[in-house]
Amino acid sequence: MNSPSPKAARRRHPQARPLLLAAALGLAALGARAGEVEVLHWWTSGGEARAAQALKATLQAKGHTWKDFAVAGGGGDSAMTVLKSRVVSGNAPSAAQIKGPALQEWAREGVLSPIDDVARAERWDELLPKVVADQMKYRGSYIAVPVNVHRVNWLWANPEVFKKAGAKPPTNWDEFFAAADALKKAGVIPLAHGGQNWQDLTLFEAVALGQGGPEFYAKALVQLDPAAIASPTMEKVLATFKRIKPYTDKNAPGRDWNLATGLVIKGEAGMQIMGDWAKGEFLAAGKKPGRDFVCLAAPGAVKTFSYNIDSLAMFALKKDANVKAQKDLAAAVMGAEFQESFNLAKGSIPVRQGVKLDRFDDCAKASAADFAATAKAGTLLPSIAHGMAVSAAAEGAIKDVISNYWNSERMTPADAIKRLLAAAKMR
Ligand code: BGC
């Protein structure tokens, strides 16, 4: 059926004219404020993509156009390389996933834009833990918005595989090796690992925290204190780290982290040590926590928490409509609704305080409780493998040493320590 002409409609409904006018004005207003948001991220695995979809849907619901700028590669090293070339050529996206101390490094370059008006209107100072708020600010101004809190030092296990192997989920490193032996005997890969430098460092920091303890971790891997790096504890941690290698499989080199999670999901491997973005993969595969998979603190790490906070840094933009879209993005990301939907898919917990966790699973509830408890006890620590602890230069150099050590037949813990001492100078 043809739609009636506005004139005919007005004849039948005299009030239609003002209504049509209002509708037209409304659309014009929406058109004027609608902009484009381009967000650089590396959320491309099954669970990550579901979370990224929540971000896209939130912006589209506000009338903006979403331009996806996804650069695959866990840990984000490739994404950072691409981002640098885009910014250098004067073509920055609206926002990019930049985290930890790197936020300050980017802000110093003068390419980020303050979003204090949004932060003030949305009361971010009241809604964020102070340590997080401080990290999002440069010279007192918010230049980034935090998305979530990931816990890095988790162990994910397949309970059915453990049962078949007669193995007990480990709570410390001795138990880890006992379980790994039992899993090996049962013909499964004990530990699913992907031999990429950021995954090697993720595993190494779990050993450093679980075996060396929080004080050692803070001194050696956050403060980069030479005495802690050269200590007998570091030697022991390096030896334990290397002892894990025979429990990984020969196809580990180069494997993506989500494919490693896939091995645990399929029951081809018993465990994975990885941040809780791995939970996003289990959930995306339709698996239920507590039934199909379990989450445990990484061995020896019950009372510690290594955190990784995803955040979106805001770049200086020229077009007003795009600035408006960027501000809507920042406001939406800190909104309670988004914090729930994004984090349910991502495997993380909301960074905004006071969001109800009713719809979250027990792993997320444990994570939230441990985050609060470790913050109080002083054992809440930044993840070095995920850009939370040290400068990008030091992190990169340490990553290389740890991977070289992991892959070398000859390098001893003492050799690795010498190289770590040199890497720690890259501040
Ligand atoms: C990011 C996560 C991401 C993970 C794997 C981490 O560094 O913070 O958001 O899911 O890498 O790609």
Set out the fold topology.
Layout: H1 6-12, H2 16-33, E1 36-41, H3 46-61, E2 65-70, H4 77-88, E3 95-97, H5 102-108, H6 116-121, H7 124-127, H8 130-135, E4 137-138, E5 141-142, E6 144-146, E7 150-151, E8 154-157, H9 159-165, H10 173-185, E9 189-191, H11 197-222, H12 226-229, H13 232-244, H14 257-266, E10 269-273, H15 277-284, E11 294-297, E12 305-308, E13 311-314, H16 320-333, H17 336-346, H18 362-377, E14 380-382, H19 392-407, H20 413-423
Parallel strand pairs: 1-2, 1-3, 9-10, 12-14
Antiparallel strand pairs: 3-13, 4-5, 6-13, 7-12, 8-10, 8-11
Helix pairs in contact: 3-15, 3-17, 11-13, 11-19, 13-20, 19-20
Bound molecules: beta-D-glucopyranose.
Beta-D-glucopyranose (BGC) is lined by residues 42, 48, 74-76, 150, 257, 277, 308, 310, 386.
Could you give a short description of this structure?
With 427 residues, the chain is α/β, with parallel strands linked by helices.
List its salient traits.
53% helix; 5-stranded mixed β-sheet; D-Maltodextrin-Binding Protein, domain 2; 427 residues; disordered N terminus; binds beta-D-glucopyranose
Name the CATH superfamily assignment of the largest domain: Periplasmic binding protein-like II
> Would you tell me the overall average pLDDT?
93
Measured between the Cα atoms of the first and last residue, the distance is 70 Å
CATH topology value of the largest domain: D-Maltodextrin-Binding Protein, domain 2
Instruction: Report the principal-axis shape.
Output: globular
> How large, in whole angstroms, is the Cα Rg?
24 Å
